Amino acid sequence: MSFTIAVKFSREWCLEPFFRAFNKLKFDRKDCNLILINNTDNKYITYAFSSGLKTPFIKNPEEFLSYQIIQTDNPHFERYDVRNFHNVPAPFHAWSAYYSFGMHELIAKNTKDNIHIQLEDDTIPPPETINSLVRILEENKDCVMSAVACPQREQGMATVGHNAYDEVILDEGFLVRRKNTPVYREGIKEIVATGYHAVAFRKDPFLDAIRYIKDLGVRIIGSGSDVYFTHYLSQMKGKILCDFSLWCDHLHFKDGKIEAYTVDNCKPWLHVWNPKRNKYDYNFI
C-alpha cells in the first residue's frame, strides 16, 4: 500500500540537520510519494532540490514512487515580528499560522493516498518514525491520526512541555486550557489533541478537519491551528494514538547556534488562557 510523506519547511537553518535525520528513516521508498513544500520565497532552495533530482539533502530520490517539489513564495515572518499580526484573514491570529495552514490545503490537493505523513523542518524524527505512524493506522481502524512524541519549546525556559494532550477545554469554540499527557517513555497511548511535528492522517478525516478550521467561528490565538484541528478529529472522527517510545528532538535557533529540546528536559505544563493578560499562563504540573 502506498502512502505520502509531506515535508514542510520554512527555516533554512533547519535543512541540514533535518535531512540528515530524514535519510536515516527506515521505510520502503518504493511505496512512498514524497512531497517537499518550500514555504518561503527562496527559489534557490527549490532549485537545489529539483536540479536533476540530485541534492545534498535527499539521498537517491529516484527510489521514491514519486517526487514533487512545491514552492509557495510566502514571506517568512518570525513569530513575534509585529508585521506577523497585521490584517490576518480569519480565523488566524498571525500570518505564519495562516501560511502554515495553507500547506495543509496544498497537501490535501496533491495527495492521493489514504494515509499521509507530515514532517516539520524543525523536528528531528527517530529512524522508526515512519514505520510506527503507518503501522498504528493500519492496525487500528478506529484511529484517524497517529503521532510520535515531541517536546515543545519556549525561549528562555529550562523546562518545556510536549505535543500530546490528554485534556483540552474549549469555551464557545475558543481554546482556554490544555494539559499535557504524562511524559511516557514507552507504549502507545490515546490522546485528545497534538501538535503537528511528526504525524500521520487518514485522508477523509483530514479533509473534513480542514473544512472545520476554515469555518471556525473564533479567531485562533497562538501559533497555529494544531490543537483545534486535532482535537476536532479526536472528538468527531476517531482516536488519536501517540507512540511514546519514539521521541523527536525539537530544534531552536538562538544566538547563532542550533539547540535541541529533548525528552530529557521535558516537563509537562498546563496552558491556561489569561484574559486579563491576553495570553497563556504556563503552570507546571
What would your notes on this structure say?
The chain is an alpha+beta fold. It has a single domain (3-284), classed as Spore Coat Polysaccharide Biosynthesis Protein SpsA, Chain A (Alpha-Beta Complex), CATH 3.90.550. It is built from six helices and 16 strands. A hairpin with a 2-residue loop joins strand 7 (164-171) and strand 8. The longest helix has 16 residues, at 95-110. It is globular.
Kindly state the number of beta strands. 16
Mean pLDDT: 91
Please name the CATH architecture.
Alpha-Beta Complex
Based on the structure, what is the oligomeric state of the protein chains?
single chain
How much of the sequence lies in strands comes to 25-35%
Distance between the termini: 42 Å
Helix % is 10-25%
Order of strands in the sheet with most strands: 3-2-1-4-11-6-12-9
- CATH class membership: Alpha Beta
The structural class is alpha+beta
Gyration radius (Cα, Å) is: 18 Å
Q: What is the chain-wise order of helices and strands?
A: EHEHEHEEHEEEEEEHHEEEEE
Q: What is the total domain count?
A: 1
Characterize the largest beta sheet: strand count, sense, and whether it forms a barrel. 8 strands, mixed
Low-confidence stretches: none
Please give the count of helices.
6
3D shape: globular
Assign the CATH topology: Spore Coat Polysaccharide Biosynthesis Protein SpsA, Chain A
